[in-house]
Amino acid sequence: MSISNHMKRNLSLLDLTLIGLGATFGSGWLFASAHVAGLAGPASIISWVIGAAAVFMLGLMYCELGAAIPATGGILQYPVISHGPMLGYMMGVITLIAYSSVVAIEVVAARQYASAWLPSLTIEGGSSPTLIGWLVQFLLLCIFMLANYFSVKSFALANNIVSVFKFLVPVCVIYVLFKHFNVENLTKDGFAPNGLSGIGHAVSVGGIVFAYLGLTPIVSAASEVKNPQRNIPLALILSIACAAVIYISLQVAFLGSIPADLLSGGWSGLSEKLPLPFRDIALLLGAAWLASIVVIDAVISPAGCGNVFMNSTSRIACGWAASTILLKGFAKVDAKSGIPRRALWLTFILSVVWTLPFPSWDKLIGVVSAALVLSYAVAPVSVAALRYREFNRPFKVAGLVWVGPVSFFVASLLVLWTGWSVVSWLAGAQILIFCVQASIKLFRKGGWIDQIIRQEIKSSLWMVAYYAGMLVLTWAVGPGGVSQGVVIGATAVFSVAIYFWGAVSGYKEPYPAYARDPQLAQA
Q1: For residues 15 and 25, what is the distance between their CA atoms, to the nearest angstrom?
Q2: Are 98 and 371 a contacting pair, CB within 8 Å?
Q3: pLDDT digits (tens, 9 = 90+) for 107-156
Q4: What is the Cβ-side half-sphere exposure of residue 159, based on CA atoms within 13 angstroms?
């Protein structure tokens, strides 16, 4: 029986939309405005628009996939359904690490802001936690674990209450900052002091992609949604649209309300001048009451976001475990509660581990953003590959012939802008995982003469080529010193070629293991 058949369909459209907003409004809005302003200046407004457009296009792909196949941990099941378990395994490693570390990032952010009132939580003069600070982070992770352990409704209720507060505080901040708006700030040192490079880096490593994370938890909980064919697309579109409006408004308000003396040296280093951006700027503007509200929300928002990702990561782990022998035991779902408790324990343990070597918000953001974009990038290729199979699609992306390649190209740009230092080991590790996995399969299961193994490898080669190509392109624009315009043009051609290769490399019929599953075999 399908894992999804054990899940309880308790989530409404409101629950699902608030899960999306709850995942979106975490630490991103609290730190990213200053970070991206330092990278791109006033042009950071364009960066937020690009980020919203990129995530929206990828979200459309998940609308089609999620509505047609509302599977538990769908973000990892879709690649398996379209291209086989080898590709699913590659994506599983990178996605599980990225998502469990998001939970850690959020508790770290909550602790950093809480240190404004409780300095003993953070080492003086730095951002790393003291022992007491780390214990506070651990306690928050335990609370997330308990909130998700008993039933999906207890998780949804906690998230709905927190989401209302998380939504109101940014709106209040926007209102107050616009009262102190100075339009001259938007032309200080030019609108785009660092040019296209600054705009691109703001999207990828500035925290913008990280901030727009709300779509994947919606897809991960697909099998627990009432009327998924209607509610999944609506929740995805609503959460992305609401987030874009608030984020762009926050950025404009932030840019215009910065006191002139802070900009005397330009935009660079702004995040060091305002380490707790909205709290610090509220104090500079004489709005101490707003600073207090921001600090309260700065603990609640990341905590609420971490709670959502504790939930969604456990579903991702559960869905992935169903397709790999390595984690088979974590695919079990508690029949009474409908909770994948073993996968939840795995998520909890990984989240605790990530709080140990990575002590501050900005030390993980680039890596996590790149890993998440690489996991998102598979969606348009999976949609295109599954179009070769005939099954019911309650939501169908119009104009896939151009929307698919463009969304894949945009995802590739985000990876490119992340930079060589991150992509070199991230993509390199994925290629190594493929080589090891392929070698094991060829050695233990009959070699190239086995038709199933041969198909698995052939259906995954496009992704290996993609990783290798992105390694070359990120090196070219970084250490290689090649013109960014030339590299972007090469990335466009390369991305389109890989997209169509991946589209025709999919399985033309269900993978044997899924053919026995009534729900997933329809794909």
Answers
A1: 15
A2: yes
A3: 887 888 788 788 888 887 767 788 898 898 899 888 888 877 765 555 55
A4: 34
Phi, psi of 156 (to 5 degrees): -65, -40
| Per-residue H/E/C for 214-272 | CHHHHHHCHHHECCHHHHHHHHHHHHHHHHHHHHHHHHHHHHHHCCHHHHCCCCCCHHH
Handedness of CA 256, 262, 266, 272 (dihedral sign): negative
% of the chain beyond a pLDDT of 90: 13
Helix segments in 69-206, DSSP class H: 74-83, 85-114, 131-149, 152-178, 195-204
Q: Which residues contact 3 (CB under 8 A, 6 or more apart)?
A: 71, 72, 223, 318, 319, 322, 331, 333, 340
Give CA torsion, residues 16, 19, 23, 26, to 10 deg.
140
Spatial contact of 301 and 166, defined as CB atoms under 8 Å apart = yes
Write the pLDDT tens digit of every residue in 27-67: 677 778 888 888 888 998 999 998 888 888 888 888 788 77
DSSP-derived 3-state class of residue 40: helix
Token output for 245: 């409006």
Q: What are phi and psi of 516, to 5 degrees?
A: -90, -5
CA geometry: angle at 269 spanning 267 and 270, to 5°? 65
Given CA atoms 13, 19, 22, 23 in this order, what sign does their dihedral have?
negative
- Cβ proximity of 361 and 32 under 8 Å: no
Q: What is the 3-state secondary structure (H, E, C) of 158-192?
A: HHHHHHHHHHHHHHHHHHHHHCCCCHHHHHCCCCC
H or E stretch at 327 = none
Distance CA 457, CA 435 (A): 10
pLDDT, tens only, 67-97: 777 766 567 778 888 888 888 888 877 778 7
Contact 174, 250 (CB under 8 A): yes
- Residue pair 407/57 in contact by the 8 Å Cβ criterion: yes
Domain chopping of the chain, boundaries? 9-258+267-380
Structure-block tokens of residue 100: 């469990």
How far, in Å, CA of 517 to CA of 64, rounded?
20
Instruction: Kindly compute the dihedral angle of the four CA atoms of residues 367, 43, 53, 26, in this order, to the nearest 10 degrees.
Output: 50
Which amino acid type is present at position 368? V
Contact 219, 62 (CB under 8 A): yes
Distance between CA atoms of residues 172 and 170, nearest Å:
5
Top CATH class of 9-258+267-380 equals mainly alpha
User: CA-CA distance, 150 to 103, in Å (whole number)?
Assistant: 19
Q: CA–CA separation, 151 vs 338, rounded Å?
A: 7
Residue 508 has phi, psi (to 5 degrees) of -85, -10
The CA distance from 432 to 383, in Å, is 26
